[in-house]
Amino acid sequence: MTTTAPALAGIAHGTSSPAGQAAVAALMRAVADAEPLLTVALGFVDVQHPDAPETLAALPAGLPAVVVPLLLSAGYHVHVDLTEAVRAVTDRTVLLAGALGPDDRIVELLRDRLEQAGLRDEDVVVLAVAGSSDARAVADCRVVAERLAAASARPVGLGFLSAAEPRLADAIAAARRDNPGRRIVVSSYLLAPGFFQDLVEGAGASIATSPLLVPGSAVPRQLVDVVVDCYRSARAPAQ
Fold first, then answer.
1. Distance between CA atoms of residues 31 and 223, nearest Å
2. Fewest beta carbons less than 10 Å away: which of 22, 113, 153, 227?
3. Per the domain annotation, does 148 fall within a domain?
4. pLDDT digits 0-9 by tens, 192-228
5. What is this structure's pTM?
6. Same domain, 134 and 198
């Protein structure tokens, strides 16, 4: 550990799913292993504790920090919750990084998950995203769908699990109606198992991929690199 480099505080959404909790904790352990000179901490914006203020308060006194949202799109939690939490800190310098996506390395991981699920040339793909009331987050999700389409050389639909339209079940139904007899494969653009992944798996697709983090499997290096790069990008202007 060094007293000069800011701490990396990864702030996830939080989940009541033990599998999801374990997966996110494993991600942060992998980040700590990749960056052994950094102080690495994990907190949450909802459901679990410590929350963001508690996470920052628990860091060594006076140590600066970079909050890295472990969120795939920059919606309300980034622009409001975490922005306010960072602004409220008075005993240390705290910077806020951007969300993890869109990022081509995550798109690569989505493509890998499709291949692992047994994607066929004739299958129809729909990207499942959490959804947000923030138009910027929705736009980010559309960018990911476009990049996945380019990476997989096929059209990719888009379905939201909350807040935005079309809802995933409707997107699946439309894809099935437009492509009779073909399998509808949902690509899960979710970080870890939990309530939303359960919704993905129950939305009526022929196949649903695993989320980006799979409990019991190695943490994808792409995700570790994205987290670290978000930290470095936020820190760079202050260096």
1. 9
2. 153
3. yes
4. 999 999 999 999 999 999 999 998 899 999 999 999 9
5. 0.95
6. yes
